[in-house]
Amino acid sequence: MGTFKVEIDVKSYLTILDGRRVYQRGKTWDFDVGRDLSVAQITKAMEDKFQWSTDQRITIWYAAADGPVPLISESEIAELFDKCNDSRTIRFGVTIESKNNGPAC
């Protein structure tokens, strides 16, 4: 079984921090995980590295045959582990956007 490397690519975004508009530059980072990875763990990792305002949300994406798909369940993560078993690397994209479905700020 062993570990997998998860790569998270966070896109640049605007947010409001302490009443000021702040441009946050995108960043890619990686960490090692076991097959017990969950959506909640990815969200927690994001919260530890990035800040966004209360009127924003994150969306986690992964590549599917017909384009990027939002990650919504652990069953999708399990499928990604199976699909990426040879490379041992799983890649996710993350966008931070307004909860009102429009661009932030």
UniProtKB/TrEMBL annotation:
Pfam families: PB1. Residues 22-92 form the PB1 domain. This is PB1 domain-containing protein.
